[in-house]
Design goal:
The complex is a heterodimer of chains A (239) and B (175).
Chain A (H helix, E strand, L loop, with lengths): L1 H4 L3 H10 L5 H11 L4 E3 L7 E3 L2 H11 L2 E3 L22 H5 L1 E4 L4 E5 L6 E5 H7 L9 E6 L3 H10 L7 E6 L5 H14 L3 E3 L9 E5 L1 H9 L7 E2 H5 L7
Helix pairs in contact in A: 3-8, 4-8
Chain B lengths: L13 E3 L4 H6 L2 E6 L4 H7 L15 E5 L5 E6 L12 E3 L7 E4 L5 E4 L9 H17 L4 H8 L4 H10 L2 H9 L1
Antiparallel strand pairs in B: 1-2, 2-4, 4-5, 6-7
Classes of the chains: A alpha+beta (239), B alpha+beta (175).
């Protein structure tokens, strides 16, 4: 207790920035133990997990600030020069267009960092990139400095980079990582869960509204609970 | 330069007696701290997520995960000191403190709060009902949406979003 009370600004900042945190391996354990019915480990050699379906991959990416390398079919002209720092010899189309799913109903496509981030609605994205939901997706944990190398390895192994979700960190799991297993937990309990908060300012919200959940199930939109992001995706086709 | 939201005059940490059986079994100490600005501690810890913040009614629940109140709590395992490696940070006044914890083996532990409830809990659920309606209404082509809402103006459209049955929107989507 004395240690707590004696905390000074310097010590706290040091603790916050250099404490012993969960690392990638511990993150893999968390996903394997808590999300094992939705993602399977190591179906592709260089991947950490394979998602059961693309919606799971998008949901993971949306709530963990992950990156999906995409090609230049996202509806804007690629920039001729520049690119993500450290892209090295990765073909331009992949270092110029990194898809970051963030929050609700928005896709951020980062191009040349000097030119900022492009934002697309989900509707626009799927209009241009509709086949994205048809392919199997894989998850890779990678350090920030190794993004380009990871994409290169994916390509050299004969895979399409846009079928990979890159959880990018400096080796430690950020708070954002925990969003996914917690959302997954509430999904299974029949909750709607996500970022959008009307008044409380929480990082995440999980809401249980049995009446709406039942109706969505009856109409075939969901099976159990859902993340808000998942609800934003295009509706299932009739029949 | 310190982060602008840091205010080093915040009240000192207080020890709170863990009343919830889940706490008693697993933790020997719960630290509570006033001021949500200590959200920074959560972000710095890189480990925490969790809070169960309210129960809206007997049928519906709203869980806020993160800094939804002005009180911050830390849960330490037996023998741990604040500042040691800690696996979890949670938020909420003592009687509402709930948590989702991940330990180093990846095990997840859910601790339900002793008490639940918000003053504005019903409004929270109403907000989410409107939100869900809006999500699905937005999937309809605008002409069809207007037809479902029988609305001509934007004001009317928004007002009717709040009163139109959810099933009406879902039916139109499936047609």
């Amino acid at each position: 207790m004395l240690d707590v009370l004696k905390f000074t600004e310097g010590r706290r900042m040091k603790h916050m920035s250099s404490g012993v945190y969960f690392n990638f391996e511990e993150g893999r354990k968390i996903l394997a133990k808590n999300c094992c019915d939705s993602i399977k480990p190591r179906e592709v050699d260089l991947a950490d997990f394979t998602f059961r379906n693309p919606i799971q991959a998008l949901t993971f990416a949306a709530y963990t600030n992950s990156i999906i390398p995409i090609d230049d079919k996202v509806g804007f002209q690629p920039i001729e020069t520049g690119g993500i720092n450290g892209c090295g010899d990765v073909p331009n189309q992949y270092c110029k267009n990194m898809l970051i799913l963030r929050g609700l109903d928005r896709l951020h496509v980062i191009s040349d960092p000097r030119l900022g981030t492009y934002t697309y609605s989900l509707h626009d994205f799927f209009s241009e990139f509709g086949n994205y939901l048809e392919e199997k997706k894989h998850l890779v944990f990678t350090k920030r400095s190794s993004v380009a190398k990871t994409i290169r390895l994916i390509m050299e192994s004969g895979h399409e980079p846009s079928n990979f979700v890159l959880y990018v960190s400096d080796g430690k799991l950020g708070e954002e990582f925990y969003n996914y297993p917690v959302i997954e937990h509430f999904r299974r309990l029949g909750y709607f869960a996500g970022f959008w908060t009307p008044r409380h300012g929480a990082d995440l919200i999980a809401v249980h509204i049995p009446e709406y959940q039942r109706q969505l199930e009856e109409y075939g939109f969901i099976g159990g609970g859902a993340s808000f992001f998942e609800l934003e995706l295009p509706p299932p086709t009739n029949g | 330069m310190a982060h602008p939201s840091l205010n080093w005059n915040y009240p000192p940490l207080q020890t709170v007696e863990p009343k919830h059986p889940a706490f008693l079994n697993k933790y020997d100490m719960v630290y509570m701290e006033v001021e949500a600005r200590m959200n920074l501690a959560l972000r710095g810890s890189q480990t925490g997520i969790g809070q169960i913040s309210g129960k809206a009614s007997l049928k519906s629940e709203a869980y806020g995960i993160g800094p939804v109140s002005d009180t911050t709590g830390y849960i330490l395992r037996p023998g741990e000191k604040f500042g040691d490696r800690y696996k979890f940070v949670s938020y909420g006044p003592p009687e509402r403190l709930g948590a989702i914890i991940f330990d180093s083996s990846g095990e997840m532990v859910v601790i339900n709060p002793d008490k639940q409830g918000f003053e504005e809990e019903d409004e929270t659920i109403s907000d989410y009902k409107r939100f869900l309606k809006a999500i699905f209404l937005s999937k309809l082509p605008i002409k069809k949406a207007k037809q479902v809402m029988n609305a001509d103006s934007l004001d009317e459209f928004i007002r009717k979003t709040q009163i139109t049955e959810f099933s009406t929107i879902l039916t139109a989507l499936k047609q």
